Amino acid sequence: MAYNSLESIVAYCKEHHASFYEALLADDMEERDVTAEDSLSRMTALWHTMQESAASYDSSLQSASGLSGGQGAKMDAYMKQGESYCGPFINIVMKAALEMAESNACMRRIVAAPTAGSCGVMPAVLIPAAEKWKIPDKKMVEALYVAAGIGQVAAERAYIAGASGGCQAEIGTASAMAAGALVYLRDGSPEQICHAVAISLKNLLGLVCDPVAGLVEVPCVKRNVMGAVNALTSADMALAGIESFIPADQVIDAMKEVGDKMDVSLKETGAGGLAFTKTARDFEKEFRAAHQ
């Protein structure tokens, strides 16, 4: 089956009177030739791994570069002052995104969703949502199928790697996956899921991939926060009935077009953007010299 468009997933849902999740479960069963139980067991394991990874954050750890570590704890301390602009739930999401992205930089176990560099987005919104609204694991696992289907279509029609299409392909896709999953958790329709995908991805079109010293730490860790918060706002707009004028599949196609036109210096080469600033180049020289 292997869906190559969100439109085809919606069509399956209508034809079979199925949910978005059921369409993706059927796809996985057919593509990997497994039973529903086997498929669900594997996805459940991923959900539990995501939860365990979030719970194992250690604020005392520092990455080998020294660029990452402790930022999640700083966000937590600020949040507890009760004076933030964003409020408690958004603060929790921001903290969770920082922590997971930092854990990745510190070589801790993470779930790439869809990549290691964007691993903080999905857990940052899904785990706090599950805890706040007491959503059962079964529903959360179903939401992961929704996210996986969105990521599959993005990978098929465009790309999910920063080296191929810029950070729009990594954080952008992760944000779209998270937004669609959030809509599903609130029993949004397949069409609303697609609008959330379109809105979230449109917001991040053109985002370049410019990691300092080639490390997914600066600016990547903080971009995970942006992707997570963008997913929340996009999901809320879709659930409110706000629609994307441009259909989701066409937004994904636009992402590919933008990525194809993006200069190679802005696609994880370290030759442009933030990676080519004086501060970044000075740091890279020092880092390389210290690790030769």
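the 2nd protein, sequnce then structure:
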Amino acid sequence: MYVDAAAGAILSSAQAITVTAVSTGVYDTAGLGVGQAVTNRFGTATSFGEDVGGGGPLVSGPQLVVTVPTAFTAGGAATLRVQLQAAVDVNNTGLPVTWDTIVQTDDIAVALLGVSSPQRPLVSFTVPDRYQGQNFPRFYRLNYIVATGPMLTGAVNAMLLTGIDDVPFYPPNY
């Protein structure tokens, strides 16, 4: 698997989550960063974006993987929900305007938020294709929703992975 740290594919790195928060990193499909207008485009398009969920003819779509390097604790029955959000670059300003949730987890109970690894992540799913008729998003981020909180401790790592090279597991005597 490949993680393009230079392009911002790391959305959270040991990010402490005690209350609802967004990821510290934002993935920009232009590779320029938030606040930077796209200068190398052709035509008269007023927005720039890409459907990263499409993958390619020989490549699956990117995977979002969230792991827990520091276990979560709470004084009560807190839960965590992870949302992948996308935003269009309106009028090529380089600034996201409206963040739309494109996929999310169910509420995950604090008892299930122990330390995890990339081999057994807390959350892992393929970034979905955009719906027909939607604009192409330029920016992607995560939104972490803490309910019935706050959490006392806990942190997450999150990244968009491409070039997945998972090894299939087969039952014995296959």
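The chain has one domain: 10-31+47-161. The two ends are 26 Å apart (CA to CA).
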